[in-house]
Amino acid sequence: MSCCSIFCKKRRATRQPSSHHNEDVPGGTNITKYTYKELARATDNFNQSNKIGEGGFGSVYKGQLRNGTSIAVKVLSMESRQGVREFLNELVAISGISHDNLVRLYGYCVEGDQRILVYNHLENNSLAQTLLGSRHSNIQFNWETRVNICLGIARGLEYLHHGVSPYIVHRDIKASNILLDRDLTPKISDFGLAKLLPPNATHVSTRVAGTLGYLAPEYAIRGQVTRKSDVYSFGVLLLEIVSGRSNSDTRLAYEDQILLEKFPEITNGVLLLQTWMYYEQGILEKIIDRSLGSDLDVAQACRFLKVGLLCTQDVMRHRPDMSKVIAMLTGESDIDSEKISKPAIISDFMDLKVRSMRKASDIATSSTFLSSLMAHSSPMLSNETTQASITSTGISDRE
Q1: What's the pTM value of the predicted model, to 2 decimals?
Q2: Where does the record place the region Disordered (predicted)?
Q3: Which listed residue, of 174, 214, 218, 243, carries a Cα 20 to 30 Å from 386's Cα?
């Protein structure tokens, strides 16, 4: 057995030997190791009334330590096949780093089969629950707030990509993984799928995991992970924040329903396709959230939308890195509109070959079909966090 040492900023991760039944538990870390009893007490024995989130790898509870510190307790599901690996990924990825736009890890618990991470509790939930959620939210997302959220996420992602070594590819940037504190400062969370890459590595190949609607096609189809995979996901998120709509939201105005008739397979890329359509027609401002008030800067909002389209380009090398993204968002760098082309959408490239499920007459290269395929692949899979092995054609020249 071995255990992962936590890497610090500008240091490589190392491995040290460990005793049996304590495999992969980080050594030499300066974060706190909590007992299960402490965390059970803090969460009222993991009471359902304290549950604030649930994902593919477990549940999250709010709690309070004896010293009064508010915490978020992420309990890894024991049924999760990849649970321990995801737990260790998250622990290694975030233990030695610190940034205003990343969640802060307080500590962890490893007792028997229990794997628990302890974070600072963020009062205002996630963007998915507040800005994009169907439930009523008391938070007022005016334009200034949205600008600050977009820039905060971009800076946090830039830090992961360029501020640490090995650099970190998050692999699951999405609205539900952006948490908001009391002041609505965004914090990137959930590093369970993160990959650590040395500076000289351009990419790694891995099993596909992430969320439909946010996955870059080259990653979804070939399992090729690069920083540009995160850039693509950020681009989708940027469009969602400006429009106030989810990329998979099919509730369109009557005049836009033709999109769903013409492209019935685009169930997880509607917003992306609609933004491109408006851009081509020269009416990009139509996609901006109509609920925004008098502080809306239409020109700035359109700038953000163009950056979102650049981030989701078909060809990976045409997507800007996060440093360039920040420069364009802040106006420090101009946007070359000639470089904006139709965004990449998974179903444009998909050539699924199904074996046990296949009927030659009804093969459909659609995200609806993909969801069905993934649901049969593993009990962990859904439209939220997904993984699959698929084949494609005609994408090798798109790097």
Answers
A1: 0.77
A2: 380-399
A3: 243
